Amino acid sequence: MIKVRTEEEIALLRENAILVSKTLAEVGRHIAPGVKTKDLDALAAEFIRDHGAEPGFLGYGGYPYSLCISVNEYVVHGFPSDYELQSGDVVSIDCGTVYKGYYGDSAYTFGCGELSAADQALLDTTKASLYKGIEAAAAGARTGDIGYAVQSYCEERGYNVVRELVGHGIGRNMHESPEVPNYGRRGHGVKLQAGTVICIEPMINQGVKEVYLADDGWGVYTADRKKSAHYEMTVVVRKGGAERLTTYEFIENNK
Ligand code: MF3
Ligand code: CO
Questions:
Q1: What digits encode the pLDDT tens for the residues 27-41?
Q2: Minimum-distance ligand 1 atom for the alpha carbon of 77
Q3: Ligand 1 centroid vs 140 CA: distance in angstroms?
Q4: Tens-place pLDDT, residues 57-75
Q5: Does the Cβ of 60 fall within 6 Å of ligand 1?
Q6: For residues 222 and 205, is the Cβ–Cβ distance under 8 A?
Q7: Does ligand 1 come within 6 angstroms of the Cβ of 105?
Q8: 214-228: string of b/e by CB count within 10 Å (b at 16+)?
């Protein structure tokens, strides 16, 4: 069952999306060598609650933190910890909120200090592939069109797409139908209708596409331990292309 949202529902999802976007920017301002990732988690939880919302990930399926912080070879679902960030680390921050009964979900991969040119290229390519996926998410298109757009962009540049985790619908639950893979074939998959709200979230590896699950039961890391990046936006399917509900302007324009 794939929901088509009213504009009232979209407005509530947008409120969540903006708060998640601001939280990512707040966390990003604190990313620096020597900072413990668990301190980023604490400040995100406080920031979300100060805005009258709750962290969307905390307790979700038993997840024990407010953020997923996935460093270097970690793809997603990394636990915040006593680890101190180092210059050159690739730091994926994934954040969720729940507010007025609806969820927000967005991720951004930051560089800590100075990144190598190769690592910066991984980040730039992954983010650009997200925008390609968003452009493909027009009413009447299919989820395979989104996946094809992401996959072809990344593979042409020598990167590989993680298969085990996918994007998703979002609403009163964080994960709703449809699944939105970051790989696929044009014209295949679920047909998208105007008003459906989805999260598109490419997870892109420098090396092989295969991943392993960490002993903590959550963390996902690359099989060859090369680096991975992850960007995620919540968008509404519209005629001609998707409208972004989340935004990176608070991160990138230093607001
Ligand atoms: N953005 C992630 C996802 O869509 C967040 C889920 S992490 C969880 O899967 F811990 F909350 F489960
Ligand atoms: Co998500």
A1: 999 999 999 999 999
A2: 7
A3: 27
A4: 999 999 999 999 999 999 9
A5: yes
A6: yes
A7: yes
A8: eeeebbbbbeeebbb
